[in-house]
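Example for tutorial group B:
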């Protein structure tokens, strides 16, 4: 299966260098020198030296994991300052594949860049070179054209991560498995109100499939005999799929520290993961979300003995954003984090754990958590202030990169009756780890951004959605108040990427809500 992973997206940067020379030897208010310095040959030689220096600095500054540096285009013009269609068209060759033009100058051809920018409206950038950067930047920005001016090459290098992330979001195509509606999830009505806004504003697209068709074809049955699509060939498993499913199951079970469920039950969840990936491939998608309670209510997940938890864990850790509970806002926010941090994200129910009158507010024991685990955490956390908990049964095995080593993990059942394989990860071992989190609001106008530090974990040896991570933030009251207008599920990644996430949010035109 060949899913176009968003981490493989690169920003196509086209170097554009404009040389100027004087046809005649003369002096004037902006023509200095004497003797050979006033010749055309001298001008062209100096321009070539500037170009060689500039292109080397540009190549050194562009990170290969973010940028595809395209073939440079170079033009010349003389002191008549004519802007010809021929010159503009030469600069524009292959422009349909360019994400960003990088401008370099020898002398003063600023006006030709302005006309090029006005005609083609492709983002442009420049690194400070005397007065050229301010002139070129201001002439474009004042006319509403997208332009970036960097004081130093190091600044340019850093910002390529942000521009690449914007492109990755624009190339995001989410496969949405639906049951009741394609907009409002039973358990995540705080998600995006209108998914088309994500398309209109950021380029993210959506493909929809009936969850019943997905479940029908999650089988080894005759692909022409599926209940929902009789007589139409489905994506059911074939013999080669069966071998790969067995291999993945063996690797997953063999690599786990403890496997507290039957291997055949683990295999059923691997089948769900594999089937979802077949659909992602067929629909040319690179992100996924599906409902939980509204699909659970059909009893088909119970009948098949699967949950989608394992799929979310395995896909997220390989760079395919995958969200629980048909939360489109969460899956989009996960990609925003992954595009910046270049590492897997984790999502879950998120709420503060305040202390009032010396007593910590209790966790919902009966609904999610093992009472003994909760009691122990109340002791472990003591009187620690500003604590927040995020929990779901979809942690990763990799945290610092999609190719990072797999960390120790267990496999435990989701359901007490023994089905629904889940990855279990001991977050307590990562105490002190800085995390960054964000979430887009339901109107697609605001982006919640926060940073915290891991202090403990919960649910490592338990069932269902009890797997969680406790972290400390600057001010939990402020966190709670601001999150209340944004939504429940709060995706996070390991590492301090707060500044870059804010930069990307601002680039996307979102109001930043920082907690």
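The residue assignment follows.
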């Amino acid at each position: 299966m060949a899913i176009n992973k968003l981490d493989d997206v690169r920003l196509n940067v086209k170097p554009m260098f404009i040389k100027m020379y004087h046809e005649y030897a003369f002096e004037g208010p902006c023509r200095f020198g004497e003797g050979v310095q006033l010749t055309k040959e001298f001008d062209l030689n100096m321009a070539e030296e500037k170009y060689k220096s500039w292109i080397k600095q540009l190549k050194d500054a562009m990170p290969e994991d973010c940028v595809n540096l395209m073939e440079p285009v170079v033009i010349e013009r003389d002191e008549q300052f004519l802007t010809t269609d021929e010159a503009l068209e030469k600069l524009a060759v292959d422009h349909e594949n360019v994400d960003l033009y990088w401008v370099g100058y020898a002398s003063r051809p600023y006006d030709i860049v302005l006309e090029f920018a006005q005609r083609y409206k492709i983002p442009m950038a420049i690194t400070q070179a005397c007065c050229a950067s301010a002139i070129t930047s201001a002439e474009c920005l004042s006319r509403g054209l997208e332009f970036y001016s960097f004081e130093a090459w190091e600044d340019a290098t850093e910002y390529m991560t942000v521009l690449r992330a914007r492109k990755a979001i624009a190339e995001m195509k989410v496969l949405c498995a639906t049951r009741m509606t394609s907009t409002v999830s039973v358990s995540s009505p705080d998600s995006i109100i209108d998914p088309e806004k994500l398309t209109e504003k950021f380029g993210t697209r959506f493909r929809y499939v009936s969850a019943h068709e997905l479940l029908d074809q999650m089988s080894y049955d005759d692909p022409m005999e599926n209940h929902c699509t009789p007589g139409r060939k489905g994506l059911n498993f074939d013999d080669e799929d069966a071998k790969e499913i067995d291999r993945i199951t063996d690797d997953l079970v063999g690599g786990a520290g403890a496997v507290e469920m039957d291997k055949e039950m683990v295999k059923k969840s691997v089948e769900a993961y594999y089937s979802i990936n077949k659909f992602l491939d067929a629909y040319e998608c690179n992100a996924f979300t599906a409902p939980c309670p509204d699909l659970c209510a059909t009893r088909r997940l119970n009948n098949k003995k699967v949950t989608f938890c394992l799929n979310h864990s395995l896909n997220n850790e390989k760079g395919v954003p995958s969200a629980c509970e048909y939360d489109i806002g969460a899956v989009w926010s996960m990609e925003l984090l992954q595009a910046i941090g270049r590492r897997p994200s984790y999502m879950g129910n998120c709420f503060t754990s305040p202390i009032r009158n010396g007593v910590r507010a209790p966790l919902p024991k009966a609904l999610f958590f093992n009472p003994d685990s909760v009691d122990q955490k109340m002791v472990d956390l003591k009187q620690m202030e500003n604590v927040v908990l995020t929990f779901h049964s979809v942690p990763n095995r990799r945290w610092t990169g999609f190719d990072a080593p797999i960390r120790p993990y267990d496999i435990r059942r989701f359901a007490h009756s023994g089905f629904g394989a889940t990855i279990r990860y001991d977050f307590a071992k990562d105490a002190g780890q800085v995390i960054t989190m964000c979430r887009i609001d339901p109107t697609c106008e605001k982006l919640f951004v926060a940073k915290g530090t891991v202090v403990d974990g919960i649910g490592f040896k338990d069932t269902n959605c009890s797997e969680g991570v406790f972290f400390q933030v600057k001010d939990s009251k402020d966190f709670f108040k601001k999150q209340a207008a944004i939504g429940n599920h709060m995706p996070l990644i390991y590492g301090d990427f707060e500044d870059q996430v804010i930069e990307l949010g601002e680039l996307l035109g979102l109001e930043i809500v920082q907690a």
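The two ends are 40 Å apart (CA to CA). Compare this with the pattern of hydrophobic and polar residues in the output above.
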